[in-house]
């Protein structure tokens, strides 16, 4: 496939007007911003079809091996600008719209942010789809078309309040309904023997119906497909009941089926919501596997050859039921024998682990699994018995234990490769969760360090820096991020440093304007912008940052003329609705912000900004304006992090622990260009053995004692002085994430950052080196790793 012929301004303008008139039935003179956005999206979508069709055709014609990425989350965000940029149409569209008196940026802002994910795991899946489309992998992403994505966050009196997200309340212009691609998915019932064969007789059924969204890669050379499933009833509408006036009963089957694709499970760490969540996971996985087998059989005849032509990747354990489900389909519907089905399934499946947190490792009670998926429960038990027979297992190994099905062990045993998402995490996976399984299968665990797409996370979100890079080293970096290496000598060039600083400053001015407009807070663009954006979780330690903010304020008040570096502390992130402690931390940060922002003594030195409803679009706004990137999790807890990579790429310096991909970031950018602090993963384990670790650390730190004292006195909550007594008590006695133990070291690293910031040429030199040395963190590199180590798939593109 070759690149695209790009349409002219006039041609695109005519396309937009055509869609306005014939697709939306609107007159240009009476069209709203929404109408213009829809018409523009349809015009761009038309341009996506050429590469999409061509990629599909080439894949069929060559019989190329296909990759299927199964994920409960795809945090895709807005699509219009992304598509325009990848198709090279940004300027053309801007001009076409200007000719109609429309402003492109307003139209871009009108698009809802599709939040079909919680955080890093879902955003990674979205970056992967784009990278597969850029690198040239014949790929489908499979997920659920949630009617309500991740909840919207508001603050009321500083507390998080959740409201439903409704991205589908308007038509979604990027998707194509595919009612012809529909599959029946069963639940419950029982399994019975018929002529020596097990047959599942489900007690409930729903229909999974497909919606496809094309994803084009850089310069439109290839495209992948995101196929999302919606739940529909399998029974026809009950007219008799309706006519008898029983409207609720008549609508019941539809309501039940739609429940499956109604809401994204709003938590990325704890398994709850139990039955519905298990049903959602099975719904997506079963529909995807039926679709994969149907497509395979339309092209190839021997199912035994499946792994030669198909690679299926499981994004965490959420789709881990794929092992038994693929075996069930092969055996019960396609007459394959047990051993062969198991061999074929294992050779086809790969599993990515994204967390070591014990509360996030999925387990289902055998009772629930047996009642929702009785046939699968049988299969799981036999897989487990086979594994026990084939290997001398220690007693701790086993998929089914203590009346629970351990989905991680199931995914491990049913996959030919298991990968972690950063070098450190993959080693910890071997040493901890899969310690025993790793001993039995020493070649199975591998590492694929995460990455991010430079198209969205640089070219789209940071045009100022992108243009400067184009002018300085050419635009090759967009496709080959390693090309950033050629920027390195410019770190020594004073004239370049000036331009680099000017680009950063322009981004900060833009962010300051937005903060003023949306929150009414006045911030100084020459202050250091210090940014922590991610889900709210104790292990990510927003609390540590909050404590340091209080200590800094306290010190500034005591000696306002001591030459402090002015700072703006940004926080962004949502807490799971039922996560009490995280919500308390949000409340505290907002109370602290309210107090500090009202202080006339420190007003020119310190501000705290926590914009509500952090999402992909907000990340695109904040990241290009960051000076300092907060990556301060308790070592050993953050599997990788990907925000850390985005911030580095955009020229922020990191203050961080040796956790997740921070380790690799620091190795690559150089220890001198990174503010390291805190205990190592080993150190954390050792320190925890001392049950008095928190008390001792607090007693040794005047700063931290002052902070806790101020909070306890109600300094930030005068209307309710004891509001945070529980939180302070936990800091003294139940500090599981070692906030106290790391506090002083964090404080020191922050002061080193302050000092460096006061010497702009040094700061900028280091920031430039961070950009120049972050080419490794492209998701294109990650995808190439999966292709070589796990999928055995070559690129379909020639160059
Ligand atoms: C998250 C990790 C992050 C990691 C992303 C993507 C889950 C279960 N895990 O550290 O916490 O960057 O996955 O791999 O959401």
Description:
The longest helix has 30 residues, at 33-62. The chain is globular and about 85 Å long. It contains 32 helices and 24 strands. The chain is of the alpha/beta class and 799 residues long. Helix content is 48%, strand content 16%. The structure holds N-acetyl-beta-D-glucopyranosylamine (NBG). N-acetyl-beta-D-glucopyranosylamine binds next to helix 6.
How many β-strands, per DSSP? 24
Unreliable residue stretches: none
Helix coverage percent: 40-55%
**Net shape:** globular
Q: What share of residues are in beta strands?
A: 15-25%
Summing up helix and strand content along with how strands pair, one would put the structural category as alpha/beta
Number of alpha- plus pi-helical segments: 32
Radius of gyration based on Cα positions: 27 Å
Report the biggest beta sheet as strand number plus sense, adding barrel if it closes. Answer: 9 strands, mixed
Distance between the termini: 10 Å
SSE layout and pairing:
Elements: H1 9-23, H2 33-62, E1 66-70, E2 74-77, H3 80-86, H4 90-98, H5 104-109, E3 114-116, H6 120-135, E4 139-144, E5 152-156, E6 159-163, E7 176-187, E8 190-194, E9 197-201, E10 204-216, E11 223-233, H7 239-243, H8 247-259, H9 274-299, H10 306-309, E12 310-315, H11 322-333, H12 338-348, E13 349-352, E14 363-365, H13 366-372, H14 374-390, E15 400-401, E16 404-406, H15 407-413, E17 417-420, H16 423-431, H17 435-440, E18 445-447, H18 454-460, H19 463-473, H20 494-519, E19 528-533, H21 542-558, E20 567-572, H22 580-597, E21 606-609, H23 616-622, E22 628-631, H24 643-649, E23 653-656, H25 662-669, E24 675-676, H26 681-689, H27 693-700, H28 702-712, H29 725-733, H30 739-757, H31 760-772, H32 779-791
Parallel strand pairs: 1-4, 1-12, 4-11, 12-13, 13-17, 17-18, 19-20, 19-22, 20-21, 22-23, 23-24
Antiparallel strand pairs: 2-3, 5-6, 7-10, 8-9, 10-11, 14-16, 15-16
The chain binds N-acetyl-beta-D-glucopyranosylamine.
């Amino acid at each position: 496939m070759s690149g695209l012929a790009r349409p002219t301004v006039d041609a695109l303008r005519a396309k937009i007007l055509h869609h306005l008139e014939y697709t939306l039935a609107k007159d240009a003179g009476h069209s709203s911003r929404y109408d213009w956005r829809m018409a523009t999206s349809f015009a761009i979508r038309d341009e996506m079809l050429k590469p999409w069709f061509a990629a599909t055709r080439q894949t069929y014609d060559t019989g190329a091996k296909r990759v299927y990425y199964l994920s409960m989350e795809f945090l895709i965000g807005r699509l219009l600008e992304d598509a325009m940029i990848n198709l090279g149409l940004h300027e053309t569209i801007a001009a076409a719209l200007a000719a109609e008196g429309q402003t492109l940026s307003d139209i871009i802002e009108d698009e809802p942010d599709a939040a079909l994910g919680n955080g890093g795991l879902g955003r990674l899946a979205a970056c992967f789809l784009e990278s597969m489309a850029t690198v040239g992998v014949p790929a489908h992403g499979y997920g659920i078309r949630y009617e309500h994505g991740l909840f919207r966050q508001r603050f009321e009196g500083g507390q998080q309040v959740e409201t439903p997200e409704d991205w589908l309340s308007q038509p979604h212009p990027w998707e194509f309904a595919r009612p012809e691609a529909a599959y029946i998915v069963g639940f419950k019932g029982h399994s019975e023997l018929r002529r020596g064969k097990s047959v599942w007789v489900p007690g409930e059924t729903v229909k999974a119906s497909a919606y496809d969204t094309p994803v084009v890669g850089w310069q439109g050379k290839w495209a992948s497909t995101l196929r999302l499933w919606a739940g529909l009833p399998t029974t026809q509408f009950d007219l008799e009941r309706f006519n008898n006036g029983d409207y609720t009963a008549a609508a019941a089957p539809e309501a039940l089926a739609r429940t499956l694709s109604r809401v994204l499970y709003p938590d990325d760490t704890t398994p709850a919501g139990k039955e519905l969540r298990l049903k959602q996971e099975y719904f997506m996985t079963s529909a995807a596997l039926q679709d994969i087998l149907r497509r395979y059989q339309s092209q190839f005849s021997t199912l035994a050859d499946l792994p030669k032509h198909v690679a299926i990747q499981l994004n965490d354990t959420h789709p881990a039921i794929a092992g038994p489900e693929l075996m069930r389909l092969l055996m019960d519907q396609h007459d394959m024998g047990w051993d062969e089905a198991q061999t074929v399934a294992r050779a086809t499946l790969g599993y990515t682990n994204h967390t070591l947190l014990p509360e996030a490792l999925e387990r289902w009670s055998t009772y629930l699994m047996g009642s929702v998926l009785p046939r699968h429960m049988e299969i799981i038990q036999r897989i487990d018995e086979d594994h026990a027979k084939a290997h001398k297992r220690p007693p701790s190994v086993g998929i089914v234990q203590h009346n629970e099905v351990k989905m991680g062990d199931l995914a491990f045993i049913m996959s030919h490769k298991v990968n972690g998402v950063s070098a450190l995490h993959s080693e910890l996976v071997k040493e901890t969760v899969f310690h025993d399984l790793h001993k039995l299968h020493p070649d199975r665990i591998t590492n694929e360090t995460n990455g991010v797409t430079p198209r969205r996370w640089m070219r789209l979100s940071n045009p100022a820096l992108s243009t400067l890079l184009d002018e300085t080293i050419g635009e090759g970096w967009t496709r080959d991020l390693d090309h950033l290496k050629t920027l390195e000598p410019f770190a020594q060039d004073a004239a370049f440093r000036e331009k680099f600083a000017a680009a950063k400053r322009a981004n900060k001015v833009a962010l300051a304007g937005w903060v003023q407009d949306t929150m009414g807070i006045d911030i100084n663009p020459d202050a250091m912008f210090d940014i922590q954006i991610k889900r709210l979780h104790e292990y990510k330690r927003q609390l540590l940052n909050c404590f340091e903010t209080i200590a800094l304020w306290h010190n500034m008040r005591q000696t306002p003329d001591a030459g402090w570096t002015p700072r703006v502390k940004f926080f962004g992130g949502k807490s799971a609705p039922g996560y009490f402690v995280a919500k308390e931390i949000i409340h505290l940060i907002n109370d602290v912000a309210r107090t500090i922002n009202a202080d006339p003594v420190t007003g020119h030195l310190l501000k705290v900004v926590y914009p509500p409803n952090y999402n992909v679009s907000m990340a695109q706004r904040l990241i290009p304006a960051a000076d300092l990137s907060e990556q301060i999790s308790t070592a050993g807890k953050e599997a990788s992090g990907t925000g850390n990579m985005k911030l580095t790429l955009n020229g922020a310096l990191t203050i961080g622990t040796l956790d997740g991909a921070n380790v690799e970031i620091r190795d690559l950018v150089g220890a001198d260009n990174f503010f390291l602090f805190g205990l190592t993963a080993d150190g954390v384990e050792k320190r925890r053995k001392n049950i008095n670790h928190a008390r001792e650390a607090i007693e040794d730190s005047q700063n931290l004692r002052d902070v806790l004292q101020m909070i306890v006195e109600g300094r930030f909550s005068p209307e309710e002085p004891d509001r945070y007594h529980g939180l302070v008590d936990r800091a003294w006695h139940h500090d599981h994430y070692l906030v106290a133990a790391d506090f002083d070291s964090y404080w020191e690293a922050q002061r080193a950052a302050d000092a460096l910031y006061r010497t702009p040429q040094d700061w900028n030199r280091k920031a430039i080196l961070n950009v120049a040395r972050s080419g490794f963190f492209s998701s294109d590199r990650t995808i190439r790793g999966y292709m070589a180590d796990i999928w055995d798939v070559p690129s379909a593109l020639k160059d």
